[in-house]
Amino acid sequence: MALDFTAIDFETANSSPASACAVGLARVRNGRIVATAGWLIQPPPGHDEFHEFNTRIHGIRVGDVATAKGWSAQLDDLCAFAGSDVLVAHNAGFDMNVLRRACAATGDSCPPYRYLCSLQVARKTYRLDSYRLPLVAEEAGFGPFPHHDAAADALACAHVVIDAARRAGAADVGALADAMSVRVCRIAVGEAVTVPPAVDALAAVA
């Protein structure tokens, strides 16, 4: 076995998890980053309002995605890049929920990807005051980088998992999960998902 996976990061237009407006990807083979990608996304209709709170975080505005593919059109590109890899994300619950909820909003079938959370791995690997991605990536020897740029965040996440596997002596994602006592989970699909509209961004984080 080899340390193969794809790191992923989404940015959202508003508080709705279906409002994907950017994705970043980094492919790892045998513990080395071999390809990266990232693109803007037109969020699904009904989830496409850009809230100032989110824009202040990632800098993406409605005009930036005017010519970008919509969710349904870009999903095949995402899946073609990731293949059958385990997906890795920092706070993976958020990113997997974006994937699942955006598919629900557009009526697309959500691919049942397996995934590992690099935040959980980081908490078992490093002793830090904060486990925000920039601080964890710095500890892993990567950075600085433009945080909340989806492609840069995916690349940083990949570096964290590669470094954690090296420190743990783990040959693959499964061995790393076992060494950290964390789970490789699978996106729950095939059940009805109600996607609520976005609420006021400030209220959402209160």
Word description of this protein:
With 206 residues, the protein is an alpha/beta fold. The protein has one domain (5-192): Ribonuclease H-like superfamily/Ribonuclease H (Nucleotidyltransferase, domain 5, 2-Layer Sandwich). It has eight helices and six strands. Strands 3-2-1-4-5-6 form a six-stranded mixed β-sheet, with helices on both faces. The N and C termini lie far apart (44 Å). The relative contact order is 0.21. Mean pLDDT is 93; it is low at 198-206.
CATH class: Alpha Beta
DSSP strand count: 6
The arrangement of helices and strands along the chain is EEEHHEHEHHHHEH
Q: Which strands sit side by side, in order, in the main sheet?
A: 3-2-1-4-5-6
Distinct helical segment count = 8
